[in-house]
Amino acid sequence: MATTFGGAPVAINIKGLYAAYQRQPVLEDINLQFPAGKWTAIVGPNGAGKSTLFHVLTGSMKALRGSVQAFNEPIATHRKAGHIAYMAQREAIEWDFPVSVWETVMGGRYGHMRSDPLWRRLLPSRWYHSRHGEAVREALLAVDMLALAERPIGALSGGQKKRVLLARTLAQQANILLLDEPLAGVDPPSERLILGVLAREREAGRTVIMVTHDMPGARRHVDHVVLINRFIRGVGSPDEMLSDAKLAELAVSSIEQSANDVRVAESPSFMAAQG
Ligand SMILES: Nc1ncnc2c1ncn2[C@@H]1O[C@H](COP(=O)(O)OP(=O)(O)OP(=O)(O)O)[C@@H](O)[C@H]1O
């Protein structure tokens, strides 16, 4: 098995990846490995392509070119087996929908329920649901939301909603967690709680990959950092990648990228191609 980063096996291996929206390139020539059992932060400016990278990993967007493997197999195999859990940045959840916290987190178990063998599904409902209920209970306990399990999701604060989304991700009991800005918009106690939960997931051997703009949190907690802005701009330790000099370089890359995009968009050949 391929190894990287201090000898850790590779959880996700991306080779020669390109992605675009309506011919506008968003990710180019991405060659990247995420070490297994480690906590990686993906850092980049707004519009850098971080969420797009997750869309490709979760299969909701098709790359123009390139390959993605998980543990040396096509990533789709692991997606289908429920090994990859994803917490979206702007979750497609109807917060006004009359469902409880418990039911929302149970949504994280649907993949397991679909793949449960027939004999298990034929068990009396109480037994059948107890395994899934236990996973939901554990996840709610981890994010300190068990006491609010019966509350309608519309009656939660922003930080509580974020914790429920995290619980839903944890309830999947996947071995790779993809988290798009799990710390955005939460207060310091919730941030500490979420960072603690993710640290425990890593200790349990899971691969944690999060997009974040929280540099102090990333410096303190993660093992590995990827800097991205359409291209990979750096890969290495938090000390090295999150230094002021490196972050300044990333910010400059963003300004240069925008200026270049304007030049391309105004060029006669691009305008002709757009029709
Ligand atoms: N559905 C879409 N159609 C067209 N362009 C899109 C679409 N989604 C994203 N983009 C564009 O692709 C680029 C990358 O977007 P993406 O959401 O991946 O960035 P990001 O790094 O996650 O940014 P942020 O930190 O703001 O969340 C941006 O310029 C964005 O406007």
Topology (elements, then pairings):
Elements: E1 3-4, E2 8-21, E3 24-35, E4 39-43, H1 50-58, E5 65-70, E6 73-74, H2 75-80, E7 84-87, H3 101-106, H4 110-115, H5 118-121, H6 125-142, H7 158-171, E8 176-180, H8 188-203, E9 207-211, H9 215-221, E10 224-229, E11 231-236, H10 238-241, H11 244-266, H12 268-274
Parallel strand pairs: 4-9, 4-10, 7-8, 8-9
Antiparallel strand pairs: 1-2, 2-3, 2-5, 5-6, 10-11
The protein binds adenosine-5'-triphosphate (ATP).
How would you portray this structure in words?
It comes from Halomonas campaniensis. It holds the Pfam family ABC_tran. Belongs to the ABC transporter superfamily. This is ABC transporter. The chain contains 12 helices and 11 strands. It has 275 residues and is α/β, with parallel strands linked by helices. The chain has a domain at 1-83 and 207-275: P-loop containing nucleotide triphosphate hydrolases (Rossmann fold), CATH 3.40.50.300. The strands form 2 sheets. It has a 6-stranded mixed beta sheet, sandwiched between helices. Strand 10 (224-229) and strand 11 form a beta hairpin. Helix 6 crosses helix 7 (158-171). The radius of gyration is 20 Å and the shape is globular. It starts with a strand and ends with a helix.
Structural class comes to alpha/beta
Poorly predicted parts: none
Task: List how many beta strands DSSP finds.
Answer: 11
- DSSP helix count? 12
Succession of helices and strands: EEEEHEEHEHHHHHEHEHEEHHH
Percent of residues in beta strands? 15-25%
Rg of Cα set: 20 Å
Determine the mean pLDDT: 88
Q: Tell the overall outline.
A: globular
Strand order of the largest sheet: 7-8-9-4-10-11
The distinct ligands, each listed once, are:
adenosine-5'-triphosphate
CATH fold annotation of the domain at 1-83 and 207-275: Rossmann fold
User: In this structure, how is the largest beta sheet organized?
Assistant: 6 strands, mixed
Name the CATH architecture of the domain at 1-83 and 207-275.
3-Layer(aba) Sandwich
CATH class of the domain at 1-83 and 207-275: Alpha Beta
How many angstroms does the end-to-end distance come to? Answer: 47 Å
Q: Helical content, roughly?
A: 40-55%
Q: Going by CATH, what is the homologous superfamily of the domain at 1-83 and 207-275?
A: P-loop containing nucleotide triphosphate hydrolases
